[in-house]
Write a structure and sequence with these properties.
2 domains, single chain, alpha+beta, four-stranded antiparallel β-sheet, about 20% strand
């Protein structure tokens, strides 16, 4: 699914290493897709609507949206007006760094008004025009992880997974992005039963080893495209067998074709934005 005809949507990435976006769309914005990160944000204007776990959800200005890794969702306006939002994409491994190997917290319903989450999300998204310093991000991350845990109904006394084996598997995958391999190979590398490893990898990173591999390849391809490489060249350089294979995986991950994604990326803001009050 491409952006709806006549859609004047735009998307701006915040400076810095933390993946943060501000976007505005009307009509249909994204086809159904999944992230391997938490997508944690706030609706700034209009009605943000999406299908999530079999139910249509609506987020109004000031409400928080928390999408768990690897959960299928889409994105569209909930009425005839544009909707605008900010979102931070937080790696499950960063949350795990706070939780110490406990299963990732899940927020039922995806839309929340919880003040604990609001405080943590404001710290991530309020000062959007400047990069977050390392310490600022770590402080916000700790508050976010604890808030997610509390809102999900879990606690710090939850079951511990084999965090070390999951980390070794991730390191191996990231060192071998150019080729494919099986759980048997990851079992040999991590010295952890492959099925237990598959479970612990999901609990730690929110997605399966195979999807993690595909999404890291897509990340590299996106970077190449932003640097000016043709999408076909980016696909070939990152292990995709052909262009259709690349486009299919790209749409599953990001809800847009590669060309549509490039079209809505704004390297410089083309319209003035007033400072958002998100607290």
């Amino acid at each position: 699914m491409r952006l709806a005809a006549g859609n004047k949507g735009w998307l701006v990435r915040a400076p810095g290493d933390v993946d943060r976006i501000e976007a505005c769309f009307s009509g249909v914005a994204y086809a159904p897709h999944r992230h391997d990160t938490y997508a944690i944000g706030i609706t700034l204007k209009g009605v943000q609507s999406f299908d999530y776990r079999g139910v249509t959800r609506y987020s109004l200005p000031g409400q928080l949206v928390v999408l768990h890794p690897d959960e299928l969702h889409d994105g569209r306006a909930g009425d005839d007006a544009p909707f605008r939002y900010r979102t931070a994409y937080i790696a499950p491994a960063d949350i795990q760094g706070v939780l110490g190997g406990r299963p990732l917290p899940f927020v039922q319903g995806a839309v929340s008004n919880d003040p604990r989450l609001a405080r943590a999300i404001c710290a991530l998204l309020e000062d959007y025009d400047r990069p977050l310093t390392g310490l600022a991000y770590q402080d916000a991350l700790y508050d976010l992880a604890i808030a997610l845990l509390a809102v999900s109904g879990a606690s710090m006394s939850g079951k511990i997974v084999n965090h070390g084996a999951a980390l070794r598997a991730r390191a191996y995958i990231e060192s071998h992005l150019a080729r494919s391999f099986s759980l048997n190979e990851l079992e040999r590398v991590t010295h952890h039963d492959r099925w237990q490893l598959s479970r612990d990898f999901r609990a730690t990173f929110g997605t399966s080893p195979h999807r993690y591999l595909i999404l890291r390849r897509l990340d590299q391809a996106r970077r190449m495209m932003l640097e000016g490489h043709a999408s076909a060249d980016a696909a070939a350089a990152n292990g995709f067998s052909d262009q259709s294979h690349f486009v299919r995986h790209f749409r599953k991950a990001f809800g847009l074709t590669p060309n549509a994604w490039l079209n809505v990326i704004a390297h410089n803001r083309s319209i003035p934005l007033s400072p958002a009050r998100i607290n």
